Amino acid sequence: MQDMPKECRAMMETMPQACMDAMQQMMQGGMMHGGMAAPQGGESAPADADVADFTKAYVDAMEEMHGPMMEGVMAEDPDVAFIRGMIPHHQGAVDMAKIVQRYGDDPQTREWASQIIEAQEREIAEMQAWLDRNAGQQPAGLVETGGTVYSANEGDNSISAIELGTGSVETVQIGVSPHNVDRTPDGRLLLAVGSAASDHAHGSDDQGHADAGNGLLVVLDPQQLSQPVGTVEVGAHPAHVVADRSGRAYVSLSGGNEIAVVDLAAASVIEHITTGAYPHGLRLNPDESELYVANVEDGSVSVIDTQELTEVARIPVGAAPVQVGFTPSGDQVYVSLRDENRVAVIDTASREVTNRIDVGPNPIQMFATPDGAYVYVANQGTEAEPNDTVSVIEIESGNVIETITTGSGAHGVSASADGAFVFVTNIADDSVSIIDVASQEVLKTVPVGDRPNGIVYAGSNQ
């Protein structure tokens, strides 16, 4: 140990003896293939087939942690060495906690795991920011796709901006409790809607977003999020917002059973359109001629003519529709049925439901990939029992082909413009999961503000 840098010696001297013994054993005995340390006393090593999957996962997590830790503590500055050693240490703890969430059954260990993930991921972000300031180390990019992902954090009145190219996260207060966020098609403005926060499920008189009263549409400059461009009073219980290419924004008002149409240039409401009961999620079709709106309390979807600004059809779909999502062709609309644990599929030509697909518990938002291959459905679960999965529907077959584990309380969904990545807000653990579409696996989980709901991707330089 005398040959080690003094910073490493200091760290080793404070290490518990049991950890020292284990580390020395691994260094002396080496690691056998598959990541398992060689057994003592001449015992034969178990074959890989005899090792449980969770054990292999734990060992892999430990191996991925140890190398970067040892490399990190070799820094010449003691503070930098500590931080560079602790970041992989914390990431190892996060990885192990996720393993017990996947394989474990005991509620207490799963709860501890959730607490560890939340605390360690937040500290990783803080330590990485310290390195940026004090060691000139830029964080690694999250994914190859550039651009920014924005989450609406209803629990702490904030918006988080995740820069995919650098991995940096900026969270700013915006003066309302935003439930949803969208960007204008030209990328010049970011729009957020909200009022008083609520921790309950969507779509009933005692489980809505806010107390009665006027909610706000907040208009933001993506380059200066902390300085809102303006606000527009829109009506009671604003839920979602979408913007079109003509400079209009459409805001669903759950408390008024209507859509507010906003002229963004004039910063004023120019029309109200009646819908079904408790309108929530809404999306424009690809040519922006129609707006589909999910009406939670009467089990329907309203079809709005965007030229006439009037409802032209109301389609029965099932129990508690929360959000809608178009395929890129515009031929189909997917509708999450929260209280049925299913997704309804509407044929837009006939305006009839042609299929219902079983997904996970309490689906909320969904989003189709730009290539028209998949629809990703976030299964939030309930407040008492949050779910942590995303169902992947193959559009061609109409079947769920994968269920991906994300963070707790999967809620909002968006996708990158190239379709390579999908982004999911996790309302119960204050994070955003980044899913690689090619592998159908979560690549990264990024801490954001409190109770993230809506989410939107904006391309580079937008």
Indicate how many domains the architecture comprises. 2
* CATH structural fold name of the largest domain: Methylamine Dehydrogenase, Chain H
Helix fraction by DSSP (H/I, runs of at least 4): 10-25%
Largest sheet: 4 strands, antiparallel
Stretches where pLDDT is under 50 for at least 5 consecutive residues are 26-47, 197-212
Query: Rounded to an integer, what's the Rg over CA atoms?
Result: 24 Å
N-end to C-end Cα span: 53 Å
Going by CATH, what is the homologous superfamily of the largest domain?
Answer: YVTN repeat-like/Quinoprotein amine dehydrogenase
Sheet-strand content, in percent, reads 35-45%
Average of per-residue pLDDT values: 85
Adjacency order of strands in the biggest sheet: 3-2-1-28
Shape: globular
Class of the largest domain, according to the CATH hierarchy?
Answer: Mainly Beta
Architecture (CATH level 2) name of the largest domain: 7 Propeller
Number of beta-strand segments: 28
- Structural class determined from secondary elements: alpha+beta
Query: Helix tally?
Result: 5
Protein name: Arylesterase family protein
Domain DUF305: 79-140
Keywords: Signal
Domain YNCE-like beta-propeller: 307-455
